[in-house]
Amino acid sequence: VAFGAVVNNLLGATWNLSGDSIIQTGTGGGTFTNAGTFEKTSGTGTSSVAPATFTNTGSVQDKTGTLSMTNLGDSSGSWSVANGAILQLAAGVAPANIGGAFNGTGTGVLQFTGGTLNITSASTLTLPVTITGASTVVSFATGSAVAVQSLTLVNNATTAGTDAVTVNGVLTWGTGTMCTSVNSNGVCTVPAGQQG
């Protein structure tokens, strides 16, 4: 996607990645707007989607392999990961407000891999979540309690926000900063039973 081009996957339409392929930005940049279904349906390797900006108001579905999406803009659509697949999400230079539902089956994993991502509406993330990378900040800012199936925080990533976050399964805290709520004095509280 280059020279300021805009790709619109319209409501009711399906954009199918039927293999390990790449969508990237070129000279002059470009945007990809998904209002329909954007899916990866074959290939066990990595498909990279990296236009200048990718926004999702429809549905992104990783059905196999790894779907790596970078330079996310504000998105209110849904995100789903099939058994054995990995969906990687990263914001661009500007923070991205990410809403919609996050769903997974079996061993499907959601990975936040870069930039600042503000989770604005999903109260339940029904899949394992990994937050990784020194430049990665995930802020839980839905305005209500958030439940996560399991959570891994590694490689100096950061969690933030004002929501109370409940990890229903395993919490793996390698390296990074975990701060799910901050009081008026700037004190971060990690609930009892969680360890670094």
Shape: globular
Order of helices and strands: EEEEEEEEEEEEEEEEEEEEEE
The secondary structure category is mainly beta
- Total strands: 22
Largest sheet: 14 strands, parallel
Describe, in plain words, how this protein is organized in 3D.
With 196 residues, the protein is mostly beta strands. 0% of the residues lie in helices and 53% in strands. It has no helices and 22 strands. The chain has strands at 5-9, 14-17, 22-24, 30-34, 37-40, 46-50, 53-56, 59-62, 66-72, 78-81, 86-91, 96-98, 102-104, 109-114, 116-119, 124-132, 137-140, 146-154, 157-161, 165-167, 171-173, 176-178. Strands 2, 3, 5, 6, 8, 9, 10, 11, 13, 14, 16, 18, 20 and 21 form a 14-stranded parallel β-sheet that branches. It has a 5-stranded parallel β-sheet with strand order 12-15-17-19-22, with no helix packed on it. The relative contact order is 0.11. Residues 192-196 have low confidence and may be disordered.
Summarize the structure.
With 196 residues, the protein is mostly beta strands. The protein contains no helices and 22 strands. The strands form 3 sheets. Strands 2, 3, 5, 6, 8, 9, 10, 11, 13, 14, 16, 18, 20 and 21 form a 14-stranded parallel beta sheet that branches.
Descriptive tags:
196 residues; mainly beta; 14-stranded parallel beta sheet; 5-stranded parallel beta sheet; 22 strands; globular; disordered C terminus
Topology:
Elements: E1 5-9, E2 14-17, E3 22-24, E4 30-34, E5 37-40, E6 46-50, E7 53-56, E8 59-62, E9 66-72, E10 78-81, E11 86-91, E12 96-98, E13 102-104, E14 109-114, E15 116-119, E16 124-132, E17 137-140, E18 146-154, E19 157-161, E20 165-167, E21 171-173, E22 176-178
Parallel strand pairs: 1-4, 2-5, 3-6, 4-7, 5-8, 6-9, 8-10, 9-11, 10-13, 11-14, 12-15, 13-16, 14-16, 15-17, 16-18, 17-19, 18-20, 18-21, 19-22
